Amino acid sequence: MYIKRLVVGMLETNCYILVSEQCGIIIDPGEEADKILETVSDWQINLILLTHNHFDHIRALPQVMEATSAEVAIHALDRIDIAVRELEDGEKIPFDGKEISVMHTPGHTPGGCCFRFEGYLFSGDTLFAGGWGNTMFPGGSEEAIFKSIKEKIMILPDETVVYPGHGETTTIGEERSLYL
Questions:
Q1: What's the pTM?
Q2: What's the confidence (pLDDT) of residue 75?
Q3: What are the domain boundaries of the chain?
Q4: Helix ranges restricted to H, 27-157
Q5: Are strands 13-19 and 2-8 parallel, antiparallel or unpaired?
Q6: Which of 13, 70, 104, 105 is the most buried (most CB within 10 A)?
Q7: For the segment 50-68, what is each residue's pLDDT rounded down to a tens digit?
Q8: Which class for 23: exposed (0-12), middle (13-18), buried (19 or more C-beta within 10 A)?
Q9: Which homologous superfamily does the CATH classification assign to the domain defined by 2-179?
């Protein structure tokens, strides 16, 4: 499996591309559709996962969806205006002979999700290196984000690599002292 991080748009959103021999997934096609599509031009993209519905994580979605014909998936509480698959907490998504686990982590948005695959966590705007997502937007909740982080994320092994929605990667071990 291969993971590629692209930094896109004025807010420097991380867009992730996961590819295996059989299929590919894009997580959060924020902006710069041409850059994303050029990067995935050699792979068949089957699924686009959205951690939440803020513009900086979905602006390139229409173009990427049209070019790849990939299914789009987001939590029901963050539903968008296009036909999408609605994700549920605990759902398992097959990928590369293994599974991606959907973790509903409300707080930044009501339907915010993280995606766990083996020793990796794609945390969207729930958890960053050295901090957590902004809860000041409509639907945000400081109480909910801290509960999500404490009860769902901080229980993961220290060596879990965190790929956040903005900024550099970190690990659960590096972030643990901020939340416990």
A1: 0.96
A2: 97
A3: 2-179
A4: 33-39, 55-58, 61-68, 142-148
A5: antiparallel
A6: 105
A7: 999 999 999 999 999 999 9
A8: middle
A9: Ribonuclease Z/Hydroxyacylglutathione hydrolase-like (3.60.15.10)
